Amino acid sequence: MPDTRDSFETSKWLPISFVAINIGLLYVIYMMFHCLPLLADKATAGRAVLDIMFFNSLTFMIVLSFIRACTTHPGSIPSKDDGDTTWEYKQPGIFSSAKSISSMLGLGLNEVKKSGERRHCKWCAKYKPDRAHHCRACRTCILKMDHHCPWIGSCVGFKNHKFFFLTLFYSTIATNMIVWTMLGSVENAVDNTVSFFSMFMLIFGETLASFLGLVVTVFFVFHIWLMLKATTTIEFCEKSMKRTWDTSVYNRGYYGNLCAVLGDNPLLWLWPGSPPSGNGINFSQTENSNLLKYMEGGRGMKKKKASKNKTRGNAGTGEYPGSDASLVQSNGGPESPLSSTISLTSQKGKSTDSARNTVEV
After folding, report:
1. Which of 149, 155, 237, 259 is catalytic?
2. 3-class SS at 195?
3. Among 45, 69, 89, 350, who pairs with 163 as Cys (CB 3.0-4.6 Å)?
4. Which DSSP letter does residue 32 get?
């Protein structure tokens, strides 16, 4: 029986080879059938030199960015082999909800399950950091996973997102350059007596560049929008339509969002190096994070009842002045299972004192 892992490793090179062939084919067509004929003519030699210099620079950046995107691991969750047991999954036990929430607060997590517990991967047996997802093709959890891209044979994640973005950026410029600068050579080949092979290659190259340019440009514009919104493709597809999802949790402003993908130094944004700082695990959180929203308003009915009880002097809530629960709420802290336990304890203590006073009377 053939090993599925070996077949996967073999099949993943097919899309990569297809991209490499298209890059090489467009390069040969543009240089051989457009630039060299222009260079041979003294009237257009100056333009040919500029086209050759600019196009070769773009091709170099495309190849370098593409290689970095393919060879850079997108990032995985730390394991116990690395000496970090923070993300090793543990079976839930008694008081697991309270411990889970306190643990999430310590780790600065924003994304939780509907039950309020930490997200975990049943295949990797690990807790998931924010924005991490399991990829079945890669058979592992990816940090800040954007999507699985077969064209680079891997996922687009925290560590290779910049290289993937730059590949789209330079490919968009190169394909559009081919379309608009080679259009004159195509018209000249159709109108004048040029060999059939040259005419075929020019028309084929123009058609291929137009199709790829359209697809890559649309995809590139979409990823610019995602980057400025501080969101990923997965978050856009799965959560953007939900009212409970707040994209501002990771939004650091336009400049901050650019730095989160392209790196901290603006002078190196267009160079396929100098990746963004951070570990892909901890992200900035705001007061409107989903974790706080869960803890404050996870029980909508109880929240409404609490607001009604406040108009009655907080009767039946256990939040008498000076109690621990009252201090938690007055300080703007969210209601958690821990504070609920304190509230119940305080309420029982108050009921006991009332009973003693009744007996004494």
Report:
1. 149
2. coil
3. 69
4. I
